[in-house]
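Lab notebook, bench 4. Still working through the backlog of constructs that have no structural model yet. Next entry is a single chain of 354 residues. Request: give me the structure tokens for it.
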Amino acid sequence: MSSLTRPEKGFSLLAMTMILPALIAATGLAVDLGRVFVTKTELQRYADAAAIAAAFELDGTASGVTDAIYTANTGPGTTATRNRWNFETTNVPAPTVSFAQSPTGTWVSNPSNPSGYRFVRVQVTGSVPIYFLRVLPGVSPNHNVPVTAIAGQGLENKLGAGGNPFSPDAQNRNHPNFGFAVGEQYTLKWAPPGQRQKNNRCEGDKNFLPGGGESDRGYIDIGQGSGQFGLGDAIVNGGYYLPEPLEIGDPVNHVQDNKHVGPFVLQRFYQDTDLYSMTQASYNGNGRRLVAVPVNNGLDSSLVVGFGLFLLTEDSCASSNVKPCCGIYLSNNPVMYSDKKGAGGSGLYRVKLY
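Model written out:
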């Protein structure tokens, strides 16, 4: 026989009726809000990655903006496979992509003049179904979770990691492009001092000689030291860095002696997916033929005057160590780890989240 009298049973039922919504609401706090938190985390990771990938595409042209929008929607590459969320069960909703000249805006979806637009904002909203919290008044059956990510090409003008162990000599240290002509070949590595006749120089340096004399071979120390293996490893694999990054006005530490780096340059060249383009406009590779380097003032006391982007060719270095190594000058605004020109003014840029 039950120990509860009829009034007690009625009270228990009433109490349960009153407590049940609170129990369901408490469950909702754990389940529904947990799902909201997970959704926000998943979408934020997508937005961050999409903004970074899109920022690499900006090069100051309308096609760069188009590529950035496509990349933000699909991810890097050519296959339209938008990221998935909700534990990999649902495609991420189409993001809203906009652009600005600074990380604080003003944001526009399609800049009429793309030059100078170096920042991307990716906004995406996911809808999470609400199951338990709907017992509370005013709670809708779905909750929108908006996220925003901003990434861009930030001007740094510091080369601590990611560069190459070369430093071309500026022909005019006061010129925005160092006296170089875009598309012309200039010296990355000089022939030995006694072998620098005009017919043994890069085309753009036919009427120019560096001021550093024998100490200026074109090689510089970016953390790899002075050995030939270190130079080759820095050219092919990178991974070296300077504890104190090189900035404009800093002295350049030349690596002396005529070390032969032709095989290493050629190895890097053949790692590219575009072996034939000779201009930046037509280049569509993976960036291995591109080298970002500090340009020095071309004087006996070598100082950094800026940063340049050069394109390697199959003939950049001859098989002989008494021949120079040449690179095609592309721009004075390299973006590190990118195959693009960059949309900013002169300087060294890196893509990062803001």
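Notes after review: The chain has a mean pLDDT of 87. The first helix runs from residue 6 to 57. Flag for follow-up if needed.
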